[in-house]
Design goal:
Strand order of the largest sheet: 4-14-13-6-11-8-9
CATH architecture: Sandwich
CATH superfamily: ntegrin, alpha v. Chain A, domain 4
Number of domains: 1
Number of strands: 14
Number of helices: 2
Shape: globular
Strand content: over 45%
CATH class: Mainly Beta
Largest sheet: 7 strands, mixed
């Protein structure tokens, strides 16, 4: 199998670029220069959201541009729990026919699988309300992970991942709500990854939410 070894200097440069330009996914070249290999993701969100109301984050443009299969492939969303609480999830769809699972992590415990044997060509919707998941008082979801055993070259999302959240009432006006996402997979001994983020501005409290 061809190794997709990333040279130290090149990997360091990609890391610096990813820090400076977090919404851009960069590709790394194979050692023999015969092809480009990389992954990509896009994150979107509403321009503005009001406290006490729902807002939606979207993950799309998910691709494996690599010429190699990637093992232990994941898609990860780090929710902005300083400002929102997740209520529901739509999985979207993916190319190819395979199975995957979804895990969540809370402020009180590590990752736990809540949906398994999901088929990539189907879209599923899940309620992530604390009562549905049996979370403890004060416990909330911080991270969501889609986990695939292996994805092949050309793998991509064909429908967006949608995360519907509620903006907490105490979020101040003009507060920046930043949703961060990343993905990656292992090629032999190397990890290919990409990240993206979206920025939503908190608006004024809508008096209709006050009872």
């Amino acid at each position: 199998m061809r190794r997709c070894k990333l040279f130290g200097k090149r990997l360091f440069l990609l890391f610096l670029l990813a820090v400076v330009y977090p919404t851009i996914a960069f590709a790394a070249s194979l050692p023999d220069g015969s092809a480009a290999t990389g992954v990509a993701i896009q994150a979107k969100g509403s321009d503005q959201a009001s406290p006490g109301q729902a807002t939606r984050f979207e993950l799309c443009g998910i691709t494996n541009n690599s010429t190699d299969a990637l093992e232990d492939f994941y898609i990860h969303d780090r929710l902005p729990t300083d400002a929102v609480r997740i209520k529901s999830l739509v999985t979207g769809k993916f190319s190819g026919k395979m199975y995957y699972q979804i895990s969540y992590r809370t402020n009180l415990r590590g990752y736990k699988v809540f949906a398994a044997n999901l088929q990539t060509t189907n879209s599923y919707e899940f309620s992530l309300h604390p009562n549905v998941l049996g979370l403890s008082a004060g416990e909330y979801i911080k991270d969501i992970r889609f986990e695939f055993p292996k994805v092949y070259p050309g793998f991509k999302s064909t429908g967006s991942i949608l995360l519907t959240c509620e903006v907490m009432p105490a979020v101040p006006k003009d507060y920046n709500i930043v949703n961060r996402a990343d993905l990656g997979g292992r090629c032999v001994n190397d990890l290919l990854s990409a990240s993206a983020s979206s920025n939503t501005k908190a608006g004024c409290l809508d008096i209709r939410t006050i009872k």
